[in-house]
UniProtKB/TrEMBL annotation:
Pfam families: APH. This is Aminoglycoside phosphotransferase. SUPFAM superfamilies: Protein kinase-like (PK-like). It comes from Saccharothrix coeruleofusca. Residues 37-211 form the Aminoglycoside phosphotransferase domain. The lineage of its organism: Bacteria, Bacillati, Actinomycetota, Actinomycetes, Pseudonocardiales. InterPro entries: AGP_Transferase, Aminoglycoside_PTrfase, Kinase-like_dom_sf. PANTHER family: AMINOGLYCOSIDE PHOSPHOTRANSFERASE DOMAIN-CONTAINING PROTEIN-RELATED, AMINOGLYCOSIDE PHOSPHOTRANSFERASE-RELATED-RELATED.
Length: 248
């Protein structure tokens, strides 16, 4: 009998692995609907969908290993990172999904709310929070929407050697800012940005990517704390926010 592995679980969703099958259970059926539609549209490798019976989506495992994990150096080659950059570029050049994406005014409002919460709850030194809020401002500019993954974490990109074999977890896919995907993929692995951009090609704005590192860290921290995760774990959001203090 195959063992059941809990990959992630919180009040909104859970992901289980049974052998080579992943079962994703989500209280909001719209998330799985987006995931199914996005994987069908994406011009990059995605896991095969085995079946979909709300609230459960069953997908097959992909070959290879994740590009890396937070808190540990990525052992993937520079060529593999460049391949991830090239795959991200293909996604960003694809036709836009026909559903709405994040709006600039909503992102700005969320940042203001989370900034105030972080200051009020003393989870980090105030100067760290304020400095990152200053840096994050550069991300709050109009962007030309592209097809983004929306949650392109390092653990969501799989490689086998120097080849991308699959990109998973598409429930946040939407039209959005290309620099956001690049920032999320290098969050906590900022030293790999050059390798990623070598494959992505022209058009990346490093200042905006750095701004998204700060913005992502600020807006994600309360959710992580309230859902039982630790943003202060090595390489995670608090480390990213502290590291910005070393920048001019």
């Amino acid at each position: 009998m195959e063992e059941v592995e809990v990959v992630v679980a919180h009040s909104r969703r859970a992901a289980l692995r049974v052998g080579d099958v992943f079962l994703k259970v989500d209280g909001d059926p719209a998330h799985a609907d987006v995931e199914v539609r996005a994987m069908a549209m994406a011009p990059v490798p995605t896991p095969p969908i085995l079946w979909h019976e709300p609230p459960v989506l069953a997908i097959a495992a992909v070959l290879g290993e994740a590009l890396g994990v937070l808190g540990e150096p990525s052992t993937a080659s520079r060529t593999a990172w460049a391949a991830a950059g090239a795959a991200t570029r293909r996604l960003h050049e694809a036709p836009l999904p026909p559903w709405p994406g994040p709006r600039l005014e909503d992102v700005a409002a969320e940042l203001d709310r989370e900034y105030a919460w972080l200051l009020a709850n003393d989870v980090l030194p105030a100067e760290v929070i304020r400095r990152n809020r200053e840096i994050a401002q550069a991300a709050l500019r109009p962007w030309e929407p592209v097809f983004i993954h929306g949650d392109l974490q390092i653990t969501h990109v799989f490689v086998d050697g120097d080849e991308v074999t699959g990109v998973i977890d598409w429930s946040e896919a939407a039209p959005g800012d290309a620099m956001y995907d690049l920032a999320v993929l290098t969050l906590g692995h900022e030293e790999r940005l050059d390798d990623l951009l070598a494959g992505y090609g022209a058009g990346a704005d490093r200042d905006v990517i750095r701004a998204w590192w700060s913005l992502r860290g600020l807006v994600a921290s309360r959710w992580l704390i309230e859902h039982g995760f630790d943003p202060d774990a090595p390489g995670c959001e608090f480390d990213v926010l502290r590291s910005r203090m070393r920048e001019p």
